[in-house]
Amino acid sequence: MIRIVIAEDQALLLGALVALLRLEGDIEVVGRASNGQEALALCQSLRPDVLLTDIEMPLMTGLELAAALAGQGLPTRVMIVTTFARSGYLRRALAAGVRGYLLKDAPAETLAAAIRSVHAGGRAIAPELALESWSGQQDPLNERERQVLRLAGEGKSSSEIARLLHLSEGTVRNYLSEAISKLAASNRVEAFRLARDAGWL
């Protein structure tokens, strides 16, 4: 049996994925989580073969979750199932050690086949994204610039960002200035939009 944990913050979709995979004779859903931290805890305790996760989730994104699992040396292989068809997300996912990246509108049989492939040590990447990832623009942001820009895009002030990330306000402004410059944007709002649309946040 292939033991999997599913992380998805939309309850209806989470239930649908569980029901769908229960129809497969060789796949067992051993845990479900509605945010990234829950998923990490489940993977630490249950050691599933595969983690099926969305990208955008509360408390910890799917990409942060994949990086955390890799950093802790856990054997669980990670598959992203998302609505975000952006090459920037795919490149970041692969850099975090993700083995599969599918879109939520993929046929049901594609998901089960992808889980089997990833479990066997292979990769499963949505073909339309695999092609785009080779030609798409490279992510110019470093991790700290990404964190600061994401919080700015959520409407946080420089002082709030500084407090959340334990940085000085001046350092936060420097990171924002660098991100704005790298993205050739006119302000933090435009920089956030450009980075988000490219899949770099």
Automatic annotation (TrEMBL):
GO biological process, one term: phosphorelay signal transduction system
Keywords on record: DNA-binding, Phosphoprotein
Residue intervals of the HTH luxR-type domain: 134-199
PROSITE patterns per UniProt: HTH_LUXR_2 (PS50043), RESPONSE_REGULATORY (PS50110)
Start and end residues of each Response regulatory domain: 3-119
Keyword Lipid biosynthesis carried by entry: no
PANTHER family, alphabetized: TRANSCRIPTIONAL REGULATORY PROTEIN DESR (PTHR43214:SF42), TWO-COMPONENT RESPONSE REGULATOR (PTHR43214)
Name assigned to this protein: Response regulator
